[in-house]
Write a structure and sequence with these properties.
Chain A: Keywords: Membrane, Transmembrane, Transmembrane helix, Transport. Chain A: It is found in: Cell membrane; Membrane. Chain A: It holds the Pfam family ABC-3. The complex is a heterodimer of chains A (about 290) and B (about 250). With about 290 residues, chain A is an all-alpha fold. In chain A, about 80% of the residues lie in helices and about 0% in strands. Chain A is built from 13 helices and no strands. In chain A, helix 10 packs across helix 11. Chain A is globular, with a radius of gyration of 20 Å. The radius of gyration of chain B is 19 Å and the shape is globular. Classes of the chains: A mainly alpha (about 290), B alpha/beta (about 250). Chains A and B meet through helix 7 and helix 8 of A and strand 5 and helix 3 of B.
Chain lengths: ~290, ~250
């Protein structure tokens, strides 16, 4: 099989592959920097909690209107924002830490979602919500994903400074500005937006993967923030493209294939990454003079 | 009498209705160099948080400049995430926040000021080092450089010299004296009483309630220090509402 057949032909020949390509690259552009900020804020697991929170909202949208992009997106956004903003507000207004508040809110959201689905009494096929359909992105869905990515990048560009300072020295930010709380809430909103954008392609649970795995991978290759973000975006988009090709050639589901490629990049980085990778640590090397 | 820059009016600050600073009154004049001393749990850090407006008084009030730009604050063991991938230059440049805000650029003059601040704290050559590679003393020097960039009229320092070696303390105290010489107002929470006696003209001895506030020599007497130690052990889960507040 020639390199053309391997890498180019699937995209050249099939419209659905080209759409998927645009979708995963757009997702990677937004999810990369957001994942890096989540990791640096030690919120890597918060994304997973948020994905669980979105699921019931999307399910309710599905129940109300079937496989309708608008209804499921609105449902997911409402549930995600309610949980993110509710948990963020409780953490800032009370003595409760954000991880505990988030756990409380997402569990309630999940239970509420299950309750609503069971009350309706229908045997709903939620596979779409769970695992996404990156190979069946229609125009409106693609526009949604690209829109989310654009909004994310513009928002990050404007709020980059307070978002970074909130991570590195929140006390300083509080002393010079009142931007801390609004910035944090906007950041949580961006996380929700990207998860909702991601669930159409990858499903709610796997959407977190494209956010966190590239960020965790980048930590083994880059030591300053700009390089971290660029590496994460590269890994996210690269995983998307390679995952699509793997899915196409091997006939496996595309969502898990994309996340598994990102997972493979992570495992490889843990082993051979130049910054703190295992192999480098095990290698006997003479210490330096200063 | 120099202009008042801070005024405490029977202020009580605390957490969950329990006072950490109890009925403090007094004024700080422009250009004063004041040490805030007292045992652990005396309310010293709480007082600085109150001045910064990070904590609202339970009763009474603190009058401070309306323009928050005029106050800079270095919290105790600053909650800086040392694993964050940011370098010394950028951490010092954050001191420009009030002027640059979200999107403002850093001018050539700003860059010169940043270089001068880094040089003033003895961190030449460390500009590109990430903060995770700095020693405790170097990190504190970087945070002092950031304070230099803030160019504030009132500077609050919470235990700024804890766990630092003698040379670092000497260099940083020289900066504090420079600020004093420039007419800035400095309030520093300190435990080293010898340092206070040597460099700080005025002292507030706090033990939840103020023990004494005035000339350092008159405040840091053996009897006042013993009194402060005894007053500090009074946290009571089942305390009654404060009578003084009711009377007021």
């Amino acid at each position: 099989m020639s390199p053309y057949d391997l890498f180019i032909a699937p995209f050249a020949e099939f419209d659905f592959m080209r759409r998927a390509l645009v979708g995963v690259i757009a997702l990677g552009l937004g999810a990369g920097p957001i994942g890096v900020l989540m990791m640096l804020r030690r919120m890597s697991l918060a994304g997973d909690a948020m994905a669980h929170a979105i699921l019931p909202g999307a399910a309710v949208g599905f129940l109300a209107a079937g496989l309708n992009l608008f209804a499921m997106t609105i449902g997911g956004l409402v549930a995600g924002f309610a949980v993110a903003i509710g948990a963020g507000a409780v953490a800032r207004a009370t003595q409760m830490k954000e991880d505990a508040a988030l756990a409380a809110f997402y569990l309630v959201s999940l239970a509420l979602g299950v309750m609503l689905v069971s009350l309706r009494g229908s045997n709903v096929d939620l596979l779409h919500v769970l695992f996404g359909t990156v190979l069946a992105l229609d125009d409106p869905t693609l526009l949604l994903i690209v829109g989310v990515s654009t909004v994310s990048m513009l928002t990050l560009a404007v709020l980059w400074r307070p978002m970074v300072v909130e991570c590195v020295d929140p006390g300083f930010l509080r002393s010079v500005s009142r931007a801390g709380t609004p910035t944090h809430l906007v950041f949580l909103a961006l996380v929700v937006l990207n998860l909702v954008g991601g669930f159409h392609a990858l499903g709610t649970l796997l959407a977190v993967g494209l956010m966190m795995l590239p960020a965790a991978t980048a930590r083994f290759w880059a030591s300053d923030l700009t390089a971290l973000v660029l590496t994460a975006v590269l890994v996210a988009c690269g995983s998307g493209v390679i995952g699509l090709l793997v899915s196409y050639h091997l006939g496996v589901p595309s969502g898990p294939a994309i996340i598994l490629v990102a997972g493979g990049a992570y495992v490889l980085s843990v082993l051979v990454g130049p910054i703190g990778g295992i192999l480098l640590r095990l290698m006997p090397r003479r210490h330096l003079e200063a | 009498m120099a202009e008042e820059v801070l005024a405490f009016r029977n202020v009580t600050l605390g957490y969950d209705r329990h006072p950490a600073v109890h009925h403090l009154s007094g004024v700080v004049a422009r250009g004063e160099l004041i040490a805030v001393c007292g045992p652990n749990g005396a309310g010293k850090s709480t007082l600085l948080k109150g001045v910064m407006g990070l904590l609202s008084p339970l009763s009474g009030s603190i009058a401070r400049p309306d323009d928050g730009r005029r106050i800079a604050y270095l919290p105790q063991a600053a909650e800086v995430d040392r694993s964050f991938p940011i370098n010394v230059y950028d951490i010092v440049a954050l001191g420009l926040w009030r002027r640059t805000g979200l999107l403002g650029g850093v001018s050539r003059a700003d860059r010169e000021r940043i270089a001068a601040a880094i040089s003033a704290v003895g961190l030449d050559g460390f500009e590109r080092r990430t903060i995770g590679t700095l020693s405790g003393g170097q990190m504190q020097r970087a945070l002092f450089a950031r304070l230099l960039m803030q160019d504030a009229e009132i500077i609050l320092l919470d235990e700024p010299f804890t766990a630092l070696d003698a040379a670092t303390v000497r260099d940083l105290i020289a900066l504090v004296e420079r600020w004093h010489g420039e007419g800035r107002t400095v309030l520093a929470v300190l435990h080293d009483l010898e340092l206070v006696r040597a460099h700080f003209p005025r002292t507030l001895l706090l033990a939840r309630s103020p023990v004494e506030w005035g000339e350092t020599r008159a405040v840091l007497t053996p009897s006042n220090l013993i009194k402060a130690r005894h007053m500090c052990e009074a946290w009571d889960e089942s305390a009654h509402a404060c009578e003084a507040e009711r009377a007021a």
